[in-house]
Amino acid sequence: MSLHDLAATILARRGADPETSWTAKLLAKGPEKCAEKFGEEAVEAIIEAVKGDRQKLASEAADALYHLLVMCAARDVTLDDIEAELARREGRSGLDEKAARPR
Asked: Distance (Å, rounded) from C-alpha 56 to C-alpha 9?
């Protein structure tokens, strides 16, 4: 499944019954709960990265990406919005980009 497929599935489930869809259940709980869940999954991915288990890291990274997209959907930020921001930064040094951010 591509990230675009995943993002489309998340958007399609937005109006689904929370009793039948985990995505709908998360979104129904609001952006704060979605952010909390993303944070939990990100920490789990970090733990697996430190441990060095590639398979578990891949699994936790998939969970983190899913929950990141759910969190963004809860605030009406789309994968297209994220890609547009990445495109804006393309060809620019990460150090230069960071230095140009408002303090």
From this structure: 24
